[in-house]
Fold each of these.
Amino acid sequence: MTSDTGSTDVSTSATDRISFAIVGSGWRTEFFLRIARAMPDRFEVCGLVTRSDETGRRIEADWAAPTYRTIDELLAATSPRFVVVSVPRAVAPDAIENVARHGVAVLTETPPGTDVEAMLPLHRLVESGARIQVAEQYHLSPLLNAQLAIARSGRLGAISSARVAQCHDYHGVSILRRALGIGFEDAVITASRFDSPLTVGPGRTGDPTEEVVVTAHEVTARLDFGDQLGVYDFAGEQYFSWIRANRLLIRGDRGEISNTEVRFLHDFRTPMLHTIQRMSAGEGGNLEGQFLRGLIAGDEWVYRNEFLPARLSDDEIAIATCLVRMAEHADGGPDFYSLAEAAQDHYLALMIARAVDTGEAVRTEPQAWAR
């Protein structure tokens, strides 16, 4: 069994490079720039929109990417296969609509809007033929990719429940839905928040310089889909914490995944146990370089890194996978994380927040994008 990432021949020539543009210049934008710098034979940032002249000069100096002040200027001067929209959610819909109006495919950052009302016009754009996908990368990161592939393989039997403590809001919900194999089914949601002290770890700017204790706000929610149960459990402080680990539990009638342990039945009297292990180069006396080769469980590869030997973090590998799949979508290929999926995940996250705020059970309702 291999995951849906598979083992891909990455001997890409310069003529096959994925040329894309970016709207936005924030922290997330640098992930796309780093990926293009690490693999110039596969990716090219042909232009970037930022409203600030100063920021534009810095990006041109640091990243050698041409910058423009408006989307119209960008698309008049370049011909990207698609445009990455990486701006705050409040202004993302306008930027997405502007790019789509030019007939260019859009890969937008998460979430695609602030609320249901903001996402409905984007849904209508898709109905009118706009090519819009969302850069939800977590399910494409190596370990989660492998875990979800094992759950889909049937080895665990029919999946009945999943508990996700991986990432916040819509990100966590996206993993939960995929772990359960849920589409747009409705749920009854109950949720609560628990506050507790936590010593902080590193942040976006690096390691801590002093001991600081903050209040961690842990949200736990139960999403009852009838014959399947999803449990969301996360505190935002977990992202950079050294002492709060990610957790994933997926259970079926013939087995379960608990983080990196896979337990299942070979037959009704033969239990099996596999451990998911990373296969990395550059460790000990290995001289291949430093990169992830893939993940194995038992005697099978459950994930193969298609970007080796590039030196990328797991998150960057996942984002690079988004870029490859977006290029395929822009060329007429299938969805990989559609606007409808993203809207549903964000809607469920908003309903979790409502359940926390009201202390009452919330029943979700079918939305326009779920038709």
Amino acid sequence: MSSLGAYVRLFGAGWTLVRNDALLPRELDAYYSPMVRLAANSLRLFATRRSGRPGERLARSLEGLGPVAIKLGQLLSTRGDIFGRQFAEDMGHLKDRLPPFPMPEARALIAQELGRPADEIFVGLSAPVAAASLAQAHEAALPDGRRVAVKVLRPGIERRVAADSAVLELAARLIERIAAPLRRLEPVKFAQTVVRATELELDLRLEAAGADELAEVMARDGYMSAPKVLWEGVGKRVLTMEWADGMPLSDEAALSQPGLDRKALADNLTRAFLAQALDHGVFHADLHEGNLFAAAPAKLTAVDFGIVGRLGPVERRYLAEILWGFLQRDYPRVAQVHFDAGYVPRKHSVAAFAQALRAVGEPVFGQKANAVAMSRVLTQLFEITALYDMHLRPELVLLQKTMMTVEGVARRIDPEHDIWAASEPVVRRWIARELSPVSRVKQFAAEAETALRNIARMAAEPQPAVVVEAEPERPAALLWFALGAAVAGAAFLAGMWLG
């Protein structure tokens, strides 16, 4: 899309929000400064579609703005504890109850991708049972009787995502240029991360691979499961998986199922996410209610693996140490990890930052979810990040977004959910495994072995011819080489013995 086209679409997006009184809604007038209130009153002269509550008006606006905007609405809809339950419910249909596209188009796409008519592959392909921003799902059966879900991308969705992405990146550049205080949030890098994740969702073969990988990961802990991928029913625009057990959490009746243990279900959700991220470095990064099925007593099944987050070993270690520090209420340690990770510039004081973290952590530690005002906590955290020049980390965007979603969904499942108590077993297990003396010896042995291999490779590489004046220095070099090899070998054997 051209720059002019992006500007036109951005103006159109703003106009849509203004017409629906969703940009500066009248219900929030009491919270605006005098200047903002004046601007809001001026914009409302053009609000021609004022019907409904703020959440309904915003949902209506986002639905018309396209898939990237709808993704934002899905995130907002999971945080009733921040924006209010009514607001979250009004936004809820954006998860999986959008208008579907016609069945003939779905059948044509299936035939095009899988090489055979839909009726030759599936028995009783149903009308759409769920429709989201990028695709819709159909229920069907295979000739052998297995019940399956068939996901089909919306026609022309690639062009719509490309246009939305151009607008998002333009908006991010304008924010970075105009709003200096928001530059530390790295709006351009944030937009690029969101765009890249959305682009990957447009190839369902990649989603099938992500689902297959995460099914293996989830099976190791048992907190969550994933339906089996049926590879013969997979194409770029079509994905077939076994039917998920239970009811989608987007259905109000899901939490009223007989025998459902809501506390255990919420705990399983929190632990599943942390186990994926910490233990395996790969996690489902779109865990809103529309992508989660629940069955008694506390079984969770995830679907829609279009967005998969990944963490490297370093990021996993920082995350675990920060969580463990909060669990132990060791604020100096949490502060030090932030500095070690580069999250806080070194010009600041570690002790002062620890004091700020204590001010956030102590009032909420051990409290039940329904006793914590998350909007106030987030406001305080935002103020602290500004005070200590903390920038958004693009590599952690999906992690932070998923953490927000998981906490919001867990709180809806169990209003008294204690995220710290739920996290403790997973974090403790990681710390015991990765930071124990045995683990440290193994890590040292591995690093020493790598160093030894590098030295050996360098020694084997032909060296340019040089005239060596001081021949007696060679034995010293060989001595250091031998000593290094001995240390590496001893460390490796110690690691093997201790392990």
Amino acid sequence: MNCLVSDVETVSIPAVRTQEFRVPYTDQPVAPVLRGQGFARLMHTDSAAYLSLRSLEQVMDAVPQHMFILETDGTLSFVNRAGREYLGPIDIFTPTERLRAIIHPDDFEALWVAYRDAMTHGISVEAEARVRNKSGEYRWFLHQLLPLHDENGQIVRWCGTRIDIEEHKGSKEQAQRENLALREEIDAVAMFEEIVGGSPRLQAVLARVTKVARTDSTVLITGETGTGKELIARAIHKRSDRANRPFVSVNCAAIPRELIASELFGHEKGAFTGALQRRIGRFELAEGGTLFLDEIGELPAETQIALLRVLQEREFQRVGGNQTIRANVRVIAATHRDLPAAVEAGTFRSDLYYRINVFPLEVPALRDRKEDIHLLAEHFIDRYAKKTGKRIRSMEKKSMDRLQSYPWPGNIRELQNVIERSVILCDSEKFSLDESWLSTVIRSSRPLAQEMISQEKELIEAALAECKGRVSGPAGAAAKLGMPPSTLDSKIRALKVDKHRFYTN
């Protein structure tokens, strides 16, 4: 580039000035000659200089990157052969509209501002923007605009270049996706570092994990909160053919309903208030790998429809976009809810349920695998003793008996928290447990899902009793419970509530 600039600087041409600044256009395909007014005058007044510039034009035509020359008012004087062959003919003559015709709409504003700053302040600029070729396809280019000076230091015209960076950009974006997924995986707070236990119930689950891992089948993991459903999902991923690709986890219950679609599928700039730039969704981050949808039962209805389409068609669109994106992603879902009951109640789509329930896996509650409590306790004691710099060599038998007899409604997560707290407070080499930590709250020994269903049934029956069996209307049970009558009817059928027994004359 420096040699080209020095060649031009040997030519003395007054700068072409205009009172009104116009946005420069970079790529009008013209015949391979410099056609600005300055060059026309040059051709008649200084044949040696013209021949010098004609030689420069031939050099630019031999360069494989796109190159062009602009006059100081933004008029296009010359485009080299590489640029002309890429763009094809363009029947637009206004500089700004020419630029709009070839630059991707999402990138135009930034490039326009860069060119304007260059020509206003007389500086060199660089910017990345996608350029459309003669077939209508876009590729990423690095755009440069450099001022060319005469011997008096005046800017007489501008030299622009475009370097194709499509492959670099694609690999960079893929690396960013994988790095983000890797950071999320590293930063995730795992319940324990490996699956610990040898109970028959756990071993049966792990045997099924081994069988399904090598397939691409969708897996639905069920079980109470704290049983380690995500750990099972990670085990499936690590034993699959996708193990060297990203594992991306999403807790559907932790994301606001209005943002969950954007979180999963991404969004385009301006798709909604606050969408200041394009965002890559979790499906794109997990490309080629595994997407774990925890608490899938909390998805709103509209997102259930979008997810069903991805599972059926293997494609999706970002929120606010119209570009179809292919999805090579294995989906593993998990829930602590009773999804069949949710289907009966009308809060979860039946077609989505059957789509995700291809290979069901139920993770047993900790109270159903008491043989593993001793191993888990030793595992956590060792972990937290190392973290706190303590040496704990043994455990009081009384403390182990307490751990074994407790029902653990919070499952492994609760056990982990209790052990961590005990290690922090432990002042000797013998682990001991304060019994009060396990009995501060009286808990039901029933699974959480059954407990929730029972409570819901009791609330409905109480409302029906108060409303004398009436479901709809201002004085009906649906109004009292704050739900549509159709929803309440579905729940009554799903929960097998006999509403007729509440009728009174």
